[in-house]
Amino acid sequence: MERNLTLIVLFSALIVVLGLVPAIPLGFGVPITMQSLGVMLAGAVLGSWRGALAVLLVQFLVALGLPVLAGGRGGLGVFVGPTAGFLIGWLPAAFVTGLVVERIRALPVAIGAGIGAALGGIVVLYALGIGGFWLFKNAALQPGDTPMSLWAATLIMAPFIPGDMVKVVLAGLIARTIARYRPSALIARS
Question: Is the confidence at residue 40, as pLDDT, over 60?
Fold first, then answer.
């Protein structure tokens, strides 16, 4: 129990620290950050439930108003802004990543973690992130404005995918390194 709690807090801290890496702001309100790598790693290393709890702890800190998101953001307002779908999507993204790593034991760790990170950290996260961005943009319409289509929101987010594919590879490589040098720490596979 104590070990689990320590690892959950450690990965929450990792997600927060990755928020200190300067974000690359884009003109439409969604910056490029490294925090999604921490979400992928939380799931890939800790497994589904522990990874999701690590993310939930970060989300709780954000809700309290602590500036733990990239760019020093925090507070309840970020849960209703253009990035809300991504922030909310972190929890299922970590859970799915961990679930895939737990289930795909026949493949090498790097490949299993990479597949998990791609499914959780890209497919799940982008589905929620794009949906949230689309809802935010359409909720802010003024009379006479043309609503944004879901396809248009998807096209706006598409440029982020290559960078997140790099994060998927990094998550796989880091998980493999942990498995090699500290196998007991890779809870998703134990």
Answer: yes
State if pTM tops 0.70: yes
Separation CA 160–CA 144 (nearest Å):
30
> What domain range is 37 assigned to?
2-189
| CATH classification of the domain holding 89 | 1.10.1760.20
Structure tokens at 33: 């950050």
Site of tokens 């939930």: 56
Helix axes 84-103, 125-139, angle to 10 degrees: 170
Number of domains in the chain: 1
Mention every residue, 6+ apart, whose C-beta is less than 8 A from residue 91.
52, 55, 56, 59
- In whole angstroms, what is the distance from residue 116 CA to residue 121 CA? 8
